[in-house]
Amino acid sequence: MTWSWSHAADPSLIDEQLQVRSLKTQERNMIDSLDGLWAEQQALAQKKMGLENQLRTQEISLQQKMTELVRRQNALASQRYQGRRSLHVLLNLQRLSGLRYILESERVAEAWLRARWMKWVFQRRVVDIQQIANEIKTVQNQKNDVEQLTIKIKGLADFVDQTTRELNEKTDVLQKRLAEVRESRELHERALFDVREMKAALLTQKIAYQRCREDPFALLQGQLLWPVVAPIKNLFGRRMDAPWGVSTFQSGVVFGADENDEVVATSDGVVAFSGTVKNFGEVVMIQHSPAFITVYGPLKSDHVVRSENVKGGQKIGRVDATNNPGLYFEVRCGTIALDPKEWLSR
Predict the structure, then answer these.
(1) What is the value of pTM for the model shown?
(2) Could you give the domains of the chain?
(3) Cα distances (angstroms) measured from residue 185 to each of 18, 171, 195
(4) Are 183 and 311 in contact (CB under 8 A)?
(5) Mean pLDDT on 122-148
(6) Are strands 253-255 and 232-234 parallel, antiparallel or unpaired?
(7) Distance between CA 263 and CA 297 in Å, rounded?
(8) Helix (H) or strand (E) holding 274
């Protein structure tokens, strides 16, 4: 085993922090843009409503004026008709002017005066009718102006609708982009959290390695006794399980020992654990120093017990190959699994 450790600023942590900061800035900018689009959309909607109300008011006012003018025109037309009839009577009376005795009749004189009065009324009505005709023409012009204004307002309303649709499309795009940015930010924050946890784990491992290197037991590297007289058949480290095709990590080695082969302690120590491990069998752990332990199993039930002091080479039990052929052996420093081959004597 090589005792080494190097520490430098972690560039991945810095990159993730910068990415998260950039994504948060993008998110704030997009939220501001969405607020601006929403305010613009509300302003256009209010403008459209005001134009529609203005148009509706003008149309109602013009409709009322046209109704009143038509009523007055019909009334004057009726009076004009009566005046024309009176004028016709007056003309007939004038044709009979040769009959002087008729002119001296009181009824004819009364009819003559009535005819002259009707003529005067008729002339006045003609003037009124002309004025009404001018007013109708003015109202018609105003109506044309309103129709032109209506066309403009409708065009403006169409423009407002088109702008609103474009704003809605922009809003949808920004909302999708905002969702993507938030998702990316969450991913980067999780990655940042993982990097920080990894950094903390590496720091913990560094401290553990430092403790292991300073432990006196580290001087025995390559000098430990073999726990059993048998060759190593499974090595320490990552390997591929043939039946399932899955990569696994083995924290120790397996010796090709037979049933009831004697197992000895690799060095002096105290039994820290002696008992059954579920789905494995009887296991013995020997504490050699504050940091280092060795693990042996599965063993027969007649093994050493907890808190028992043992010497290097002392028998601690027998191999139980009933369910797990061979002897499994580990060397650990704290939570760190070490390669037993580097610790056993050559």
Answers:
(1) 0.48
(2) 11-197 (1.10.287), 232-342 (2.70.70.10)
(3) 11, 20, 15
(4) no
(5) 73
(6) antiparallel
(7) 9
(8) strand 269-277
